[in-house]
Amino acid sequence: MLVGVGEADRPEDAERLAAKVAGLRVFDDHRGRLSKAVGDVGGAVLAVPNFTLYGDIRDGRRPDLTGAAPPDKGQRLFDLFCGAARAKGVRVEAGRFGALMRVVIEADGPVTIVASTERWEEGELGG
Asked: What's the predicted TM-score (pTM) here?
């Protein structure tokens, strides 16, 4: 999971997102249906902090990254997200904030989910 923290994100957003990720049923059951969460399959979350997720390319030819949170806030909320997911019983492997990282993954299946806290309403998301 790539984790981007935006300027408007709050601590409660990090906690709600962690709860949502922990409970997402995105793994196959014995019938091939998406009905299992990461903990049900003994999996883990790889959380990679990435401010470029906020690259806005609507104007010009250079991404505008002003929607990303400042580094101190971004790191604080990224760490809070990881801790909150661990508190839900999810094993979390985390990238280093601000580091140049090479991440290689092998995706197994047709599912890619973008998780964003934009436009969340209070009470909209369950755990």
From this structure: 0.83
